[in-house]
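Standup, Tuesday
Yesterday: got the pipeline producing structure tokens again.
Today: sanity-check two examples.
Blockers: none.

Example 1:
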Amino acid sequence: MSESRMEMVKKAYFKLDVNGDGTVRLDDIAKLFDASQHPDVLSGKKEESDVYMEFMSLWDTQVKDGIITWEEFSGYYKDISCSVESDAAFQEIMTEAWKLGA
């Protein structure tokens, strides 16, 4: 993953780490993730709640403890990064999903 993409992932993770302890809880992700702009929601293929539930099921994969580690979070985005053609498109995905412009 390019350095600029990794910086976006770090920005999102640290925004989610609301108490600054280096970990993110599923509740923190739930409060911030916006599924309304997901392509399947916009096209009418899926309901926003379905996309949200699918997305939430992707986390907490190493240990089912309600905590998303940096390794889990960055690993997810390393996988996603492979399917995103440009750094600009990746930045837009991250900004929309995690409200990074706010």
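Example 2:
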Amino acid sequence: MRLRISRRAWGPVRALCLLLGLVLASQAAAQQLGVRDPLVLTISSDRLFADSAFGQRVLREIESEGAQLAQENERIVAELSSEEKDLTQKRAELAPEDFRPLAQAVDDKVQSHREGQRAKLDALARRSEESRQTFYALAQPVLIELMRETGAAVVLERANVFLSADTSDITDEAIARINAAIGDGTGLQDGSGE
């Protein structure tokens, strides 16, 4: 028995053969990376950032600046406490109309310090978030290339997946490739103002 295909059917048949060839090629690439199901991959974006050279550098810098900010805060609080203590001792010696402006000045300093420290903490948090956004923008071409190689249709956040095989997780491979592509990001614009 011989199978006959009409001329109209050849176009779809050729397209189907081409698609099948692409699927088989992408499955072979996926198997080389240890991924069994190339259609859906998972990634831990938090670990991708935190374990990358770029993320580790940024986290070290943020931690260092946070520690400096804490030391500065302790120093200023000690100075303000000393001023308050001196003012409390002078209270008995001063008339109320002389004491009020001094007390208000100390209160104003305390409030100014709180606002200044809050602004510095907010700036540090913004820098951290901007660095993450820059990292993900720089990592995107690497992730797209991984998707192409594996034939994946989508990469999902691992934390949002109810159940998956560990073989679908490309986080380690992505970290290695991102480190090779951008290193720790020194010299790149990462929101740090460098």
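Quick observation on example 2: The longest helix spans residues 96-150. The CA atoms of residues 27 and 111 lie 62 Å apart.
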